[in-house]
Design goal:
alpha/beta, 7 strands, about 15% strand, Rossmann fold, globular, single chain
Length: about 250
């Protein structure tokens, strides 16, 4: 079996970092992108290498489409030099940020920032990388539980994630002939620095989340990293075009 390689955008921190470590533990080699946190990305590469896997990191602003051609060339060079291949097996569209603002107060600049990273960037980066994704590979788009349930302040963010779930179904339809499965994973509230770290750092908010979750607690990064690793490494290629929520049963 040829060595499997995963590309994870936004992999220097948070859920992307956790997913990279979980996949590496399952024998997958890793390429992560970072926006500005180069030191953190390089430290992650070192951690993955200590697990006995090969890893690399590349800078990428997923909200800037004009950068994608240059990034793709860099990626091809890394694949050739490190792995002597021209393909990746798994693409995880994870990069993103959160903006908390009521619908009435959301600015066009905030809307565009979210759209460029969470929707336009995912659409055109995936398009650019299609020739590099191996037939029989897998694409996993990170959505959000907020595309199903609603909390005030996330209208723009959740709108982008709803669009990603629609895009996921279209990609699954169009890439099925190549044996490429495409799914969306929707985390619930997770104890990370997302949204200013409110789920992790605000005990009152955390308690509200726990009270509205079947499993009785807020999610942890390991919960999502494990889900990503399971979807990509398990014999689950017949699952495609699906929205899979990993929320512990939030807001059922």
């Amino acid at each position: 079996m040829t060595q499997r390689i995963a590309l994870i955008t936004g992999g220097s921190r948070g859920l992307g970092k956790n997913a990279a470590l979980k996949l590496a533990a399952k024998g997958v080699d890793i390429i992560v992108t970072y926006h500005s946190k180069q030191a953190e990305a390089e430290a992650l590469v070192a951690d993955i290498q200590r697990l006995g896997r090969r890893a690399a990191t590349l800078q990428l602003d997923t909200g800037t489409v004009r950068a994608f051609s240059g990034f793709t060339e860099q990626l091809q060079a890394v694949l050739h030099n490190t792995w002597q291949t021209g393909h990746i097996d798994y693409l995880v569209n994870n990069a993103g940020m959160g903006i908390h603002s009521s619908f009435a107060e959301t600015t066009e600049e905030q809307f565009d920032a979210l759209m460029n990273v969470h929707l336009k960037g995912v659409f055109f980066l995936t398009q650019k990388l299609l020739p590099l994704i191996a037939d029989g590979g897998r694409i996993l788009n990170i959505s959000s539980g907020l595309a199903r349930f609603s909390f005030p302040g996330y209208a723009a963010y959740a709108t982008m994630k709803g669009a990603i779930e629609t895009l996921t179904r279209y990609l699954a339809k169009e890439l099925g002939s190549r044996g490429i499965s495409v799914n969306a994973l929707a985390p619930g509230a997770i104890e990370t620095d997302f949204g200013g770290g409110i789920t992790r750092d605000d005990p009152q908010f955390n308690a509200v989340i726990a009270a509205n979750t079947a499993m009785g607690r807020a999610g942890l990064p390991d919960d999502i990293g494990d889900a990503i690793a399971a979807l990509l490494t398990a014999e689950s290629n017949w699952i495609t075009g699906q929205r899979i929520e990993a929320s512990g049963g939030m807001m059922l």
